[in-house]
Amino acid sequence: MKGVERRFCEEFSPGYYGICTFGGMLSAGTTHLAVTPLDVLKVNMQVNPIKYSSISSGFSALWREQGPSSLWRGWSGKLFGYGVQGGCRFGLYEFFKDLYSNVLVDQNKTFIFFLSSASAQVFADVALCPFEAIKVRVQTQQTFANGLSDGFPKLYKTEGLAGFYKGLGPLWGRNLPFSMIMFSTFEHSVDFIYGSIVKQRKEDCSRAQQLGVTCLAGYAAGAVGTVVSNPADVVVSSLYNKKAENVLQAVRKIGLVNLFTRSLPVRFTVVGPVITLQWFFYDTIKLLCGLPTSGGLNRQLQEANLST
């Protein structure tokens, strides 16, 4: 592979999964931190759509009524919560993809991508959920807490351990479809770009070319995943802010059309660039460690898919 001098470790070794976990933590935590103002607006649009009816008016209302610092409320939950989630999501995805590739050699690669990403996301959301519970409350309830340090003890005192995982079901409902579609779209986009546009093997491309493919595939993955996961994202915000007691009640109150459209423009603004940057940083770290960029299965499953 061009531009790679030496490897710090072999693929699918413990060191490899460690690099993937670190890369996922760094890429996800920093990119989510960078878009905290848009996330604050998104959550408030979901909870109070009449007051925060558009991106421009929503920012104006937050700035005017709560000051510029309000746009960064919940930053610690974004940095640490999504950092932990990103580490689990990317690191475990690589682990499960290799595991299922060796065990389910007769299955097509799309099934492998779906199963691997879903397995990783289950654990990633368990790690994220306590941070998300604090973050959403901090962003929408001015008197709740300033951040994680005072938010964790306050929530535990008022709602107990269950309060941290109240939104786990809807969180899975949002992130499992998103992750499955995102990783599968990314993998297939990488295959399509190399096979039909670049018309070269990944190993024969320069680092810059590989990262360019990563960014194109990453944006496509983020855009498709956003549409699929929007209804559950709206429900999560409703539950955390006690606008409904359960998922069914939230769906009835919000309405079917609003589930798919409420805050969707701002989510497109946030998620597309965030996912693109995550993949870019993640693959940059892998390249700097002498590893290939993301996309593709192990050789055993590749040969099985080629023969079908």
Give an overview of the whole structure.
- With 308 residues, the protein is an all-alpha fold.
- The chain has helices at residues 14-34, 36-47, 55-66, 75-103, 109-140, 148-159, 168-198, 207-240, 247-254, 256-261, 264-288, 299-306.
- The protein folds into two domains: 44-73, no CATH class; 74-305, Mitochondrial carrier fold (Alpha/alpha barrel).
- The chain has twelve helices and no strands.
- Helix 1 (14-34) packs antiparallel against helix 4 and helix 5 crosses helix 7.
- The two termini are 28 Å apart.
- Residues 303-308 have low confidence and may be disordered.
The top-level CATH class of the largest domain is Mainly Alpha
Query: How many domains comprise the coordinates?
Result: 2
| Spatial gap, N to C terminus | 28 Å
CATH topology of the largest domain, by name, is Mitochondrial carrier fold
Using the CA coordinates, give the radius of gyration. Answer: 20 Å
The tally of strands reads: 0
CATH architecture of the largest domain: Alpha/alpha barrel
Give the oligomer, counting copies of the same chain as homo and different chains as hetero.
single chain
Measured as a percent range, the helix fraction is over 70%
Please, what is the average pLDDT? 88
Subcellular location: Mitochondrion inner membrane
Membrane topology: Multi-pass membrane protein
GO molecular function, one term: phosphate transmembrane transporter activity
Family: Belongs to the mitochondrial carrier (TC 2.A.29) family.
